[in-house]
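Comment thread on ticket #2218

A.B. wrote:
> Attaching the input chain for the structure job we discussed in standup.
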Amino acid sequence: MGAIPREIALQEAAIEHHEQLMAGQAVCEMFSGDFDALSGAQWDAHASDQSELWGRLYRLLMEPHRRWSAGFSCLCFAWVGAPMAIRLRNRDFLTSFFLCFLPILVVYYPLLVYGVAGVKGGSIPPYSVWAGNLLLLPWGGWLLWKVLRY
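C.D. wrote:
> Ran it. Output below, let me know if you need it in another format.
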């Protein structure tokens, strides 16, 4: 975690350098009148390299959020599981377990996977990996309210 800010700065510098390199090459090709080179295989390779550089930057920006979110997910699971277990105290163990685990499997993990994939692609902000946890908190609060109410 301590090396991530330094890596982000290095990655941003590498992206800036690569963009300047591509701009310089484009200017040279335009001045020479070789406009076909701007759509050739070499230009596509530079664009692919640029895409990889941005992808690494997105992953670096996401990593602290993903790590903290994964840590807090345990707390959120307990926040939901404890009131659910209290409400289902008279049922057998497997029924209680699957009634707690199935919504987490159906709701939390798809949100986490969608958030990680979206951030890696650069289409959504890095804090989107917290969406599953933020959905579990009110659900656990509602369950706890129901337990304390009765």
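A.B. wrote:
> Thanks. Noting for the ticket: Residues 43 and 118 are 26 Å apart (CA to CA).
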